[in-house]
Amino acid sequence: MDLSELKNRICESFTGTADDLEEVLKIVETDSSVFPFNEYEHLICNLMEKSGLTYQQYLEIRSEYVAENPNLWIFEISAPRGFGEKFAETYVRGMCPDLKKSSKKLDADCSGQYDMWLDGIRIEVKASRAVDSNSDEPLYIKALSRTSKKPFLMNFQQLKPQCCDVFIWVAVFRNEIVLWVMSSDEVANHALFSKGQHRGNKGNEGQLHMKDDNIHLFDEYVFNVKDLGEFIKNAAKRGES
């Protein structure tokens, strides 16, 4: 359920007259919404004022929306560091307890050039959020579901294949979190990998734009089994071959 579907769900639950509903919709349409007092809060309050929407109905709609969009809170994380390190890396470690934070104790050559370590495999984690690329709304408003047909762009940047063995890309949709696991060679040699992201880096750093019209090109790398550790090891073996 996206926001347009939410609005329809609220209106369909209204038991008052059609005239009352039309009046409320006009009021909401002409109102200037300011976070956190948005149009949906205004709509619900007005419909309840018309005695056509009960508090119990509101709770049911709210519970349904929250259940179908469990990841919306992730779109409210504003700091890139908070999203990339605190959320994405924590999420990945939660799926594979054997993953260790990179350190010189594990790898004498480690100097922060990759994020995690698994039995000698150097792993870099990158994360992005799927949002409507045609919208200027805040992230939590333009967040997309996995099944959405709207255009989106997820930019995995500052990629340095020479500094790790495996990449884990974390994509957050409003209703699902998807992981892609690729060897560094698979990233470096991918047709969509763009070398030389920043001027003067001599090709040591690149980026990859994953969009609604090319995301299918990465289907073979989607983590879709139970053991993430084994999935990572298989990716590392592909890089060695």
What does this structure look like?
This protein is an alpha+beta fold. The protein folds into two domains: 3-68; 72-240, Trna Endonuclease, Chain: A, domain 1 (3-Layer(aba) Sandwich). Helices cover 36% and strands 18% of the residues. It is built from eight helices and eight strands; from the N terminus they run αααααβββαβββαββα. The chain has helices at residues 3-13, 18-30, 39-49, 55-68, 80-95, 139-142, 184-188, 228-240; strands at 100-101, 116-118, 121-129, 153-159, 166-172, 177-183, 193-195, 206-211. Strands 1-2-3-5-6 form a five-stranded mixed β-sheet. A hairpin with a 4-residue loop joins strand 5 and strand 6. Helix 2 packs antiparallel against helix 3 (39-49). The longest helix has 16 residues, at 80-95. It is elongated. Residues 198-202 have low confidence and may be disordered.
Features:
three-stranded antiparallel β-sheet; 2 domains; five-stranded mixed β-sheet; alpha+beta; 241 residues; Trna Endonuclease, Chain: A, domain 1
Shape: elongated
SS strand fraction: 15-25%
Strand order in space, largest sheet: 1-2-3-5-6
Calculate the terminal CA-CA distance, rounded to whole Å: 44 Å
Query: How many domains in all?
Result: 2
Question: Helix-strand pattern, N to C?
Answer: HHHHHEEEHEEEHEEH
Instruction: Specify the structural class.
Output: alpha+beta
